[in-house]
């Protein structure tokens, strides 16, 4: 397991912030073997700082990062796959030779590096671009190459900072499929993203960070259960004032009125709705990850 425990980090201040800035204030979470962990938060929440500490780019003021029940060391990190926020590709190098080069840097022999590069080029849909310079690629294809660089040495864990940023749906599917394959083989994967619908679809567990603190963590099902269900009632062309006095909020789209509430007597609400007009939907709904996120960081 990859265990992050009580990480704290303060950056030195300047004229406008003499006391410095607290970037992390006790961040803790665990990523288990074969688990995909979504790390979400607003810009400046502490996601990138956490990942940089995990990878040894920054040093924490306090706290620990453990891997397989011992402190994570430099040798361990060479067996991790890392995709930084600032992409680190050689722009004039061709796609295939670049992936092979990074494989060699990770200790693969020439034949093994070439085979790994060829496999990833095919898996990530880069076959027609293998001879192109990186600078000639679209953003989506550059992202695919960056992920290939992170995967080429068959890493034991993956730490990916915004890997899906700016990608079209086809590129998202290609990258997601590659990550899911790694998870199925037992590799723990942590990635940050602002695309909460994607996190909800892919991740086993989620951590929500705000202001350098973990404000919610758990499986998507656990986070939904903690928020509770919401009753949604949709009535077509109801009588005016039909929902007066009922708990919740009503939104109107054309002749459809939608009541959402987490309180009240559902049978009484149903009676009122049926009396007012044609009921087109009546049922409990769990909150989306976007709704959970907004509530957690509010």
Architecture overview:
With 298 residues, this protein is an alpha/beta fold. It folds into two domains: 2-225, 3-Layer(aba) Sandwich (Rossmann fold); 228-297, Alpha-Beta Plaits, CATH 3.30.70. The protein is 34% helix and 29% strand. The chain has ten helices and 14 strands. The chain has helices at 47-54, 74-77, 95-105, 110-123, 139-151, 169-184, 196-202, 220-227, 266-276, 289-297, and strands spanning 2-11, 21-31, 36-40, 62-67, 70-71, 80-83, 157-161, 189-192, 205-210, 213-219, 230-236, 249-253, 256-261, 278-285. It has a six-stranded mixed sheet with strand order 6-7-8-3-9-10, sandwiched between helices. Strands 2-1-4-5 form a four-stranded antiparallel sheet, with helices on one face. The longest helix is centred in the middle third of the chain and has 16 residues, at 169-184. Keywords: Antibiotic resistance, ATP-binding, Nucleotide-binding, Transport.
Q: How is the secondary structure organized here?
A:
Elements: E1 2-11, E2 21-31, E3 36-40, H1 47-54, E4 62-67, E5 70-71, H2 74-77, E6 80-83, H3 95-105, H4 110-123, H5 139-151, E7 157-161, H6 169-184, E8 189-192, H7 196-202, E9 205-210, E10 213-219, H8 220-227, E11 230-236, E12 249-253, E13 256-261, H9 266-276, E14 278-285, H10 289-297
Parallel strand pairs: 3-8, 3-9, 6-7, 7-8
Antiparallel strand pairs: 1-2, 1-4, 4-5, 9-10, 11-13, 11-14, 12-13
